[in-house]
Amino acid sequence: MHNKLSKKIESKQAKIGIIGLGYVGLPLAVELAKKGFTVTGLEVDSKKVENINNKKSYIGDIKTEDIKELVTSKKLSATTNFKAIAKLDVVIICVPTPLRKSKDPDVSYIVSATNEIKDNLKTGQLIILESTTYPGTTKELVLPMLEETGLKGGKDFFLAFSPERIDPANKNWTIANTTKVVGGICDKSTNLACQVYGSFTKVHKVSSTQAAEMVKLLENTFRAVNIGLVNEVALMCDRLGLNVWEIIDASATKPFGFMKFTPGPGIGGHCIPLDPHYLSWKLKTLNFYSRFIELAGEINSKMPEYVVTKLADTLNEKAKSIKNSKILVLGVAYKKDVADLRESPALDVMTLLIKKQAKLSFYDSYVPTVKIANKILKSEKNISNVSKYDAVLILTDHTNIDYAEVVKKAKLVFDTRNATKNIKSQKVVKL
To answer: Which end of the chain is more exposed for a tag (fewer CB within 10 A), N or C?
Structure first.
């Protein structure tokens, strides 16, 4: 069975299914279809399925032209009918893995996807999990569920883990040129998964699914801890009367021993705010407490409160109370040049501002509406009238904004992202 599937992958005859057509699944589906595979997207969201089959993209990094070409050539399709799994050779799980309110991992989407596969599993299939999760999930959760069918992993079907490495809006590093890490429950599983990903990018093998799962958590815990460090340095510099951005830029001139990270109003996105908690939770079950991770999480989670406090203090210096002050937030997405709101610190900042009874508005050309404190706010149509606000708060530094013009017209600009780096003005206050 291994040799048969290997030949089908090599000849691009293998039929591939992607469960979950979000920021991870759709780019992967498109890339595999471009390489000649016939790809079926499996999705519970009927709107996404409708968009794909109507040849439309709903993700910024994926061009509608590419979807149109692939659907027209019948290399890409989508369905809500998971019985289609029975006709596939490779099934890749790309579902969300959020945290519960208690900060424990929520693997319910993985369980749901695995159940769908279990109900339609056939001999000779390769199953790959890409969803970020704690070390042990593939072998301790997914494998036993699939073996409830009576089929044996590594013999009757193959199973591997390969962490997603998607960075929305990154033009330099895409799915097509970012190395994929792969670890299987056996050598045959690893090699088959490597064949799939090797069709479009470089592959790095690791010894097990647990190792591959840990790789993803280390990558993003590394970022979370370093962001926590630089956020704390920002607080230090504020106390010392120093410009943290000047300090960081100067430190970055060192060609060795320093990697540049920047502070901000908090951390957001689908990985950095969540992944360290997966690792921390797993370690707690082993009676090990990760002090660096916990401390970084504490610092990062307090940044929205710090931003609001500093804004209030700045307004007080101008004899203005934050209560009833007109505040315009520029950018609410979790990072620049995307429409992604997942875990965006801007939402926390805006919630705090509403609690302090500020008169809040926002502008984000990527995000038309946000829900804050049970209220739906609509984005301003433009920023030509910034002069009417008591303060402009830059929370996401989208590149399509003329910050020089904003500073020129605004009464006060509080810049948490250093978007006004090259603009000298006493109106500007930095993080």
So the answer is: N
CA dihedral 109, 114, 117, 119 (to 10 degrees): -100
Q: Which amino acid would we find at residue 86?
A: A
Distance between CA atoms of 54 and 330, rounded to whole angstroms? 33
Inter-axis angle of helices 2-10 and 187-198, nearest 10: 10
Taking the mean position of all CA atoms in its chain, how far away is CA 189?
Answer: 27
* 234 contacts 45 by C-beta, under 8 angstroms: no
Give the other-Cβ count within 10 Å of 156's Cβ: 17
d(C-alpha 51, C-alpha 67), whole Å? 9
Cα–Cα distance, 193 to 182 (Å, whole number): 7
Average pLDDT over residues 196-221: 96
pTM for the structure as a whole:
0.92
Q: Which helix (H) or strand (E) is 268 found in, with range?
A: none
Q: Give DSSP secondary structure letters for 52-83.
A: HHTT---STTS-HHHHHHHHHTTSEEEES-GG
DSSP state letter for 140? I
> ∠ CA 424-428-431 to the nearest 5 degrees?
115
Tokens at 67, concatenated? 């979807």
HSE, CB side, 13 Å, CA atoms: give it for residue 408: 6
* Alpha carbons 139 and 135: distance in angstroms, whole number: 9
The pair of structure tokens assigned to 236 is 């230090």
Residue 262, by phi and psi: left (phi above 0), alpha (psi -120 to 50) or beta? beta
For 54-157, where are the alpha helices, taking DSSP H only?
64-72, 108-120, 137, 143-147
> Given this model, what pLDDT does residue 278 score?
82
Is 196's pLDDT higher than 90?
yes
* Nearest of 139, 186, 158, 179 to residue 6 by alpha carbon: 158
Average pLDDT for 265-272: 82
Length of the chain: 431
Q: Say how far apart CA 294 and CA 246 lie, in whole Å.
A: 28
* Angstrom distance (rounded) from CA 159 to CA 120: 15
Return the number of other C-beta atoms located less than 10 Å from residue 247's C-beta: 16
Report residue 208 as tokens: 């097990």
The amino acid at 160: A
Pairing, β 375-378 against β 369-372: antiparallel
d(CA 77, CA 219): 32
> Which distant-in-sequence residues (6+ apart) come within 8 Å of 88 by Cβ?
15, 16, 17, 40, 125
Q: What's the whole-number average pLDDT of the chain?
A: 95
